[in-house]
Amino acid sequence: MAGNVLDADQNGRRRFVALGDSFTEGVGDRNEALPNGVRGWADRVAEKLAKAEPGWEYANLAVRSKRLRHIVDEQLDRALAMEPTLITLYAGGNDILDFGTDMDILMAEYERLVARLAATGATLVLFTGYDVKVSAVLEPFKKRNALYNERVREMAAKYGAVLVDYWCLDAYHDRRMWASDRLHMSKAGHKYMASQVLDHLGVPHKFSPKDWEPPQRLKLRDWERRQRRWVNDWVLPLFGRKLRGVTLGDALGPRWPEPVKVPRKAGLRKLAERQAAAAGSAAAGTKAQSNAQGKAQNNGGT
């Protein structure tokens, strides 16, 4: 592991780049004011870094549904070109859920990715995968997840990475830490993950676990109703997309594709508002110019 994560590099730069899929994009933590309509743990980490030490820049290249090969092809070179001082990586979860995935090949490719990132000298954060107990439908994938976690732990030790062992975080036993699809973290889950990452990095924060009352035990009829809704709303569409060879991330780009300087106050929401206002002004200017040109042409102008 590198030195204090808050230290700047030799060029005085502090830059956090996040790579991965829906876990890092922030799916499950809805926020329409932010890119792709989500927030997530990585945004929260970036904001706390900026509060602890001004001048932090942040890029989030993660896009939902991406497989490991997509992350290598679409995110790796972009991340390296940004010369980050802090990198987070979670990848491979979608591959685990794909039929026919060869875990030995997957983990060999994952290690090559980890090695490239570790060679930058940046602080590198890796994550194990959580054993999401949503249905017996996904039980066959449990062995794959256990193998994945074992190999990630080995890689973290080998390459000196910080390991956030998601598998061992008991707080996620509470169903309120999960979004309605039961595969992605809720807002509370993302907040808790941000606190774990910051704790591992030694960065101060004020995130605290939810002080919930114990969940009420569901009646059988209510449980069955929830199960039917979950299958209809999430499971069947998921397998339908797999059969059609499409994903929810096909039409999306990264939320923060280029490093942005994180404001110390109001954080990334304030930055998103500024960007939206600037885009609106640019669009209005383009429309005005187009109208003027059209008027000139209608009047016989050039």
TrEMBL record:
Residue span, SGNH hydrolase-type esterase domain: 18-191
Name of the protein: Lysophospholipase L1-like esterase
Coiled coil: none
Biased composition (Polar residues): 291-302
CDD domains reported in the protein's UniProt record: SGNH_hydrolase_like_1 (cd01832)
Biased composition (Low complexity): 275-290
InterPro entries to which the protein is assigned, alphabetical: GDSL_Rv0518-like, SGNH_hydro, SGNH_hydro_sf
Region of interest called Disordered, as start-end residue ranges on this chain: 271-302
